[in-house]
Amino acid sequence: MTKIDHLGIAVKSIAAARGFYESLGLTVVHEEVVEQEQVRTAMLPAGDSRIEMLEPTSEDSPVGRFLKKRGEGLHHVALHVDDISAAMEDLKGKGMRLISEDIQIGAGGHLYFFVHPESTGGVLVEICQDPIEGV
User: Fold this and answer.
1) Measured between alpha carbons, how far is 86 from 107 in angstroms, rounded to an integer?
2) What is the b/e burial string over 110-124, where b = at least 16 CB atoms within 10 angstroms of the residue's CB?
3) Cβ atoms within 10 Å, residue 13
4) N- to C-terminal Cα distance for the chain?
5) Phi, psi angles (nearest 5°) of residue 67
6) CA atoms of 132 and 135, how far apart (whole Å)
7) Which residues, in sequence order, are CB contacts of 118 under 8 Å at separation 6+?
8) Which of 20, 45, 60, 106 has the highest CB neighbour count under 10 A?
9) Degrees to nearest 5, angle at CA 48 with 43 and 50
């Protein structure tokens, strides 16, 4: 089953941005630095989905470059799948352009990869799966 897992919002500062979401009754439940992406994340549950604030830890990181080029705002839409390997193979087989050919481990141990906006109608799409237990 595919569902919206989260919306990634690029921000200059999580500390500055969180006030808006908290004023709506949302609460940051998890913060983490994802070293390989050079980003600090903060997750806020919103119903069956989440909002992920993304603050770059380096100006040269993907999110840092995004902020320089586009400013704060929607960075990506993340779709949850039950079998990320099968989803990757299916998308590759259909000729979709991926940002990376490798499945990564991100915030909270979730598995993920990104599909290039060129293949998705202009939106960066993250495909993610829950962490594998016992790994």
Assistant:
1) 21
2) bbbbbbeeeebeeeb
3) 11
4) 23
5) -60, -40
6) 6
7) 97
8) 106
9) 20
Enter the tokens of residue 109.
């141990």
Name the band, by pLDDT with cuts 50, 70 and 90, for residue 134: low
Q: What pLDDT, in 10s, does the model give residues 43-75?
A: 999 999 999 999 999 999 999 999 999 999 999
Residue 48, number of CB atoms within 10 A of its CB:
9
Reported residue count of the chain is 135
Print burial letters for 60-90: b (CB count within 10 Å at least 16), e (below 16): ebbbbebbeeeebeebbbbbbbeebeebbee
Task: Tell me which residue of 36, 7, 1 sits closest to 125, measured CA to CA.
Answer: 7
CB 39 within 8 A of CB 76: no
The CA–CA distances, whole Å, from 133 to 109, 129, 130 equal: 9, 12, 9
The 10 Å Cβ neighbour count of residue 128 is 23
Rounded CA gap, 114 and 82, in Å? 16
CA distance 102 to 3: 22
